[in-house]
């Protein structure tokens, strides 16, 4: 028998169906609420209790610390798959066959040129501009060079737009970094793999042959996989909601990049390293910063701690912590900031304030440490997150359009002034 929920308002009873997901999650379907109740709405700031869509892409269970892309566990994918396979899996729903992967790779490479005129746009930014702002602008600018909206009912057009952005985005991301470092822009080398090529585009020196480093590229690949999707988070919801107005893929992605930029979301990886550096400069007294984080009169928060959904542990943080230790070991790097991070985590995990509020290290607590070890500048950390999240955003945008979801348009409860008569300027 189908499940139902009953809501009683002022003695009137209303019934709503309960939708059940494949992992037995239940959601009360309130699509008919306003119509049935003559305009009563729900209020849920931050959408903590609101499901915005039905999705078949990513499953996560915050209590049990489970994260799966299309049914495959993040642990297995991080260990056995490469980033391009994960892109294909997220976007198209299945792991690619060898043939499909080869074609996907080839099609992306075909599109890896960026119009030379895009360089003029990049040139207009000051060197000091934050790379996330530049990347969001350049992604938006891509629309001008690739005009025309995608007919989402045409598989071919949809595929074309997807390979285009997967190809051009790493070029733009690498350019934002090269511009800051006063390095000539690089188009990479299509004989390299996707992640190797990204690394080359970021770091190759104009007068030196590029030498790939397996440890570095494997670590980057894993980091990108760990960030590839995370269901309806702030930036993904942004991409879906912008796309729901039938704005194009690139425009929706540009908005997603801006959403990711904030320090409470993707910007946390940069904020973590800045925090750890500040603690180090202040003598490494972790207890002092734990106390500051607990003090309600102090706005300081322990960056990299806490998560809207994970309330036991973040499975990505577990993988990444191990990876950070391996990468630093393999590259022979001793980073005092890693010791401070470990010290903070140890204390916080036992502290009642953090235990009670279920605040655990999240993925970004450790990712910055690896990025640093790989020589990636701090202000580029969130760009690295965006590079990883790209296939997730694309998959979610594609799903939203294929499911023909309506335009996103939440309601509100108005708390402003009641009607007032207009006052002429001389009377105010
Ligand atoms: N340090 C200290 N206290 C914290 C922290 C923190 N990092 N995070 C949450 N709290 C406290 C809050 O003050 C609040 O305490 P209270 O109940 O006494 O008022 C309680 O824990 C609940 O916090 P909320 O902000 O309500 O939790 P929410 O789910 O809204 O926020 C968030 C989650 C934004 C991630 C938050 O934990 C945070 O700001 N963390 C630091 C930033 C960060 O690491 N962001 C990255 C998120 S992961 C990602 O985007 C990949």
UniProtKB/TrEMBL annotation:
An example of a Pfam family matching this protein is: Citrate_synt
**Alphabetical keyword list:** Acyltransferase, Transferase, Tricarboxylic acid cycle
Q: Do the record's keywords include Lipid biosynthesis? A: no
Q: In which pathway does it act?
A: Carbohydrate metabolism; tricarboxylic acid cycle; isocitrate from oxaloacetate: step 1/2
InterPro entries given in the database record: Citrate_synth-like_lrg_a-sub, Citrate_synth-like_sm_a-sub, Citrate_synthase, Citrate_synthase_AS, Citrate_synthase_bac-typ, Citrate_synthase_sf, Citrate_synthase_typ-I
| Reactions catalysed, as given in the entry | oxaloacetate + acetyl-CoA + H2O = citrate + CoA + H(+)
Molecular function via GO: citrate synthase activity
Look up the domain of life of the source: Bacteria
Similarity annotation:
Belongs to the citrate synthase family.
Q: Which NCBIfam families match?
A: cit_synth_I, PRK05614.1
Question: What protein is this chain from?
Answer: Citrate synthase
Protein's organism:
Aquimarina gracilis
């Amino acid at each position: 028998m189908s499940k139902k929920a009953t809501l009683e308002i002022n003695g009137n009873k209303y019934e709503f169906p309960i939708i059940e997901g494949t992992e037995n999650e239940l959601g009360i379907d309130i699509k008919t609420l306003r119509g049935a109740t003559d305009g009563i709405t729900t209020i849920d700031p931050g959408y903590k209790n609101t499901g915005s869509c039905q999705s078949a892409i990513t499953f996560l269970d915050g209590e049990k610390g489970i994260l799966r892309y299309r049914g495959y566990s993040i642990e297995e994918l991080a260990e056995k798959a490469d980033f391009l396979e994960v892109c294909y899996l997220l976007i198209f729903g299945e792991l690619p066959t060898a043939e499909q992967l080869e074609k996907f790779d080839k099609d992306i490479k075909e599109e890896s040129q960026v119009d030379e005129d895009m360089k003029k746009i990049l040139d207009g930014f000051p060197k000091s501009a934050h790379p996330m702002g530049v990347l969001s602008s350049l992604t938006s600018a891509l629309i001008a060079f690739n005009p025309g909206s995608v007919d989402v009912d045409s598989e071919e057009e949809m595929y074309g737009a997807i390979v285009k952005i997967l190809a051009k985005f790493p070029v733009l991301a690498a350019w934002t970094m090269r511009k800051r470092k006063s390095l000539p822009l690089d188009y990479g080398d299509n004989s390299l793999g996707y992640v190797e090529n990204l690394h080359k585009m970021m770091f190759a020196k104009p007068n030196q042959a590029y030498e790939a480093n397996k440890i570095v590229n494997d670590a980057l690949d894993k980091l990108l996989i760990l960030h590839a999707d995370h269901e309806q988070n702030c930036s993904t919801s942004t991409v879906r909601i912008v796309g729901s107005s039938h704005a194009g893929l690139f425009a929706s992605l540009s908005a997603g990049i801006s959403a990711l930029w904030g320090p409470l979301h993707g910007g946390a990886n940069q904020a973590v390293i800045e925090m750890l550096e500040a603690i180090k400069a202040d003598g490494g007294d972790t207890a002092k910063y734990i106390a500051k984080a607990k003090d309600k009169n102090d706005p300081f928060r322990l960056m990299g701690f806490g998560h809207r959904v994970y309330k036991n542990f973040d499975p990505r943080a577990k993988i990444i912590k191990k990876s950070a230790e391996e990468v630093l070991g393999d590259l022979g790097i001793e980073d005092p900031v890693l010791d401070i991070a470990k010290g903070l985590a140890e204390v916080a995990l036992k502290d009642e304030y953090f235990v009670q509020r279920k605040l655990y290290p999240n993925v970004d607590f450790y990712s910055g440490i690896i990025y640093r070890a790989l020589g990636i500048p701090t202000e580029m950390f969130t760009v690295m997150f965006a590079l990883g999240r790209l296939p997730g955003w694309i998959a979610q945008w594609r799903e939203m359009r294929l499911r023909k979801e309506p335009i996103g348009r939440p309601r509100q409860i108005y708390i402003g002034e009641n009607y007032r008569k207009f006052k002429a300027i001389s009377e105010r």
